[in-house]
Automatic annotation (TrEMBL):
Residues 280-440 form the Acyl-CoA oxidase C-alpha1 domain. It comes from Mytilus edulis. Belongs to the acyl-CoA oxidase family. This is Acyl-coenzyme A oxidase. One of its GO terms (biological process) is fatty acid beta-oxidation using acyl-CoA oxidase. The active site is at E426. Residues 20-138 form the Acyl-coenzyme A oxidase N-terminal domain. GO terms for molecular function: acyl-CoA oxidase activity; FAD binding; fatty acid binding. FAD binds at T144, G183. Pathway: Lipid metabolism; peroxisomal fatty acid beta-oxidation.
Amino acid sequence: MSNEVNTDLLKERSTATFDAERLTEFIYKGPEKVKRKRQIQNIVLQDKFLQSFKPTEFYDRDGQYNNAVRRQIYIMDRLEELGFRSETDRLNFREAAAPVELSPFGLHSGMFVPTLERQGTPEQSRKWVPLGKSFKMIGTYAQTELGHGTFIRGLETTATFDPETQEFILDSPTLSSIKYWPGNVAKTVNHCLVMAQLYTQGKCHGTHLFLVQVRSMEDHTIMPGLEIGDIGPKLGFDGVDNGFMKFNKYRIPRMNMLMRYAKVLENGDYIKPKNAKLTYGAMVMVRVWIVMDAFKALSRATVIAVRYSAVRRQSELRPGGEEAQVIDYQTQQYKLFPLLATSYAFLLAAEGMSQIYAKISSDIERGNLEDMPQLHALACGLKAFCTWVGCEGIEVCRMSCGGHGYSHASGIPKIYANIVGACTYEGENTVMMLQTARYLSKSYFRGQRGESLPELIQYLTIDLNVKSTLGEDCSFESLVAAYSHRAARMVATACKLQNANKQKGMPSHDAWNKSTVPFIAATKAHCHLLYAVYGIVENMGEFMQDGYFNQDQISILNRKVLALLEDIRPNAVALVDAFDYPDHLLQSCLGRYDGQVYEALYENSKSSPLNNTDIHSSYYNYIRPMMQKRSKSKDISAKL
Ligand SMILES: CCCCCCCCCCCCCCCCCCCCCC(=O)SCCNC(=O)CCNC(=O)[C@H](O)C(C)(C)COP(=O)(O)OP(=O)(O)OC[C@H]1O[C@@H](n2cnc3c(N)ncnc32)[C@H](O)[C@@H]1OP(=O)(O)O
Ligand SMILES: Cc1cc2nc3c(=O)[nH]c(=O)nc-3n(C[C@H](O)[C@H](O)[C@H](O)COP(=O)(O)OP(=O)(O)OC[C@H]3O[C@@H](n4cnc5c(N)ncnc54)[C@H](O)[C@@H]3O)c2cc1C
């Protein structure tokens, strides 16, 4: 490979109107943090073991899982040796060391240990959390069943208290009650946090979490009374062993129920939690993280597509002129620049969401549950919105790289295959949006009654008769007002339909169901408040429906969006460079910093396993016999 940087990319970088390094410092919160991140990434780059892995797509599933376990355990050991204690250092190391591989221990660190910490009594946490943190106990979060994922109240696994033995008996009474999907259940873990219907004194008290040992701590054999296995290949997540698990009257001690909020006493008495939804805390936390995952996935795809578009030349823009960089086509800019802006918006939204989560979750820990519904609504809506928009955007990035985007060598298919799972896991997106919609609906009616609303949704009470004051400058205030107006109008419309349904005599659940399509649209509009001119132009109908904008204003917006493409054009490469994703993190022949994409693609294709031999065994096994048979055939059409 040549060491030179592609001349087009060099030019792009030299003509940027701002210093990309300053923006990188803003993203990572200061020059010292950027320096530290790069140092850590360099440690990974110098590490011979970590660099010895071929791209994951060159391994079969068994190989991918095996490599994932091997690599992740090596990462854990190295983190210990290096003495990295800060969460940021550890995350930077992990991301650099395994940039496109999901960890078979992800749910252990991401859900299992935090849930033990937050949902266990102080005594339970003291006992289990150190075991989890030191990986003496490896666990996961096992909730979903063959028959139910969304509807947690419909889960069928039972945990029946037996006061005689002071145990819970876990059982899978039906086929549909078999746990199905939980990550890392199949081969990796020896413990699970199992969500099951609690029965005591003959009464069901709803779903609760239980710590269940599923494999022997000595030899990893499956505990008697359990059936466990892998669910098979999926769209992505190849390094993750999503599993099934069936309980056959399997006993665990009473104290293995997580009892921070709800309790079962020795005599079988049940003590209710302050709020039954506290058991769902782990899901809320992961939904918040997913917003950051959506940012990472979309921004990586955007870096790849923008850099490649600056290097790729195709067709003549000026008749008879040189072939143009595809980034100079207005249509290409319209595809990619809004995604670049969206990436930045997602980053800020994810950071804002994390701060809100930290504040409200610490209130909850202290027993103040007042803001729980607001946190839930925000996390559900943003998780769904950012994963939907992120996935659509990644697909646009892939297609904007033409044919090469379709190759794994572009790096984009893997980004997509992993993040698209997030539209489903941790709450299917439509269902999540409808949770936010319920919150908006209730808040709208509260606003109508003159009650005060939390700051984020105070816009629901604005006067809908006011028209836009947007002028040539497309001021920030006029844009925010437009989004608020559109969302408020759409929420009001959906609520009015819900009300009209009720007034027709429908029971409230039907009145709700028969207004959920407009509610989803309204909730998307609510989440869309992150956007500016592009979002209006793309959804013009919704902004115009009640004549909020006049014809002149629409023309202003259409002109503005095209002018913005021109403003961004000289800065597009610098704006993606600022994310500061090194090549080994992107794992993309198209998104390389040096832009040497053709050399990289050509080199990469040589490592395809099909190139191990010039003549493939299938020639001897099938093609040659077929040709020999045909050449002996009397059929003249087979003779050349
Ligand atoms: C490669 C390239 C890399 C490059 C790119 C790099 C980027 C990386 C990209 C890749 C990523 C890497 C990551 C790897 C690891 C991932 C592992 C995956 C983990 C997945 C784990 C899971 O997948 S684990 C299972 C999750 N499974 C759910 O998520 C079920 C949803 N289902 C519900 O969540 C409930 O079922 C549902 C609907 C709320 C109703 O709940 P329900 O029926 O009990 O309640 P009701 O309907 O009766 O509601 C009664 C009232 O409670 C309110 N309420 C409900 N919940 C509440 C709450 N939490 N807080 C407050 N309030 C709440 C509700 O809003 C009502 O309020 P109101 O009355 O005011 O209307
Ligand atoms: C990659 C991946 C990893 C996963 N990891 C885990 C894990 O570690 N642990 C775990 O416990 N689970 C895990 N899951 C399972 C996941 O959490 C569930 O699949 C998810 O919650 C969706 O539930 P479901 O499959 O029941 O979908 P369903 O609810 O059956 O969805 C099917 C359709 O019905 C619609 N629908 C359902 N209910 C409603 C409603 N009330 N209103 C309107 N529409 C509705 C949905 O919108 C969807 O279109 C994982 C799933 C995936 C894909």
